[in-house]
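Can anyone check this?
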Amino acid sequence: MPIPPYTAGQYLRAVGYVLRRLRYQADASQEEAAAAVEMDRAHLAKWEAGRHEPGIYRLTRLLGYYGCDPGDCYARIDARARMYQRHAARRG
């Protein structure tokens, strides 16, 4: 697998965006989603804000709660991070 063209910051921003969208689609609050996977709401908020990188165990549980296949979810994250990278390259 080649090294992604985007930065860690662009990746974290994309993770946050995708997780927030999935939660909205599941019609769940941060409190409900965090409780379902036994984590603190503030920690989930940091993930969604792109300030913390999710661990694989809790991320997998959260994706299961949202009903999202991990492979599909990673593809969404990758596509969003690549979009952020293209936008940054255009700005110079």
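Reply from J.R.: I decoded it. The CA atoms of residues 2 and 86 lie 17 Å apart.
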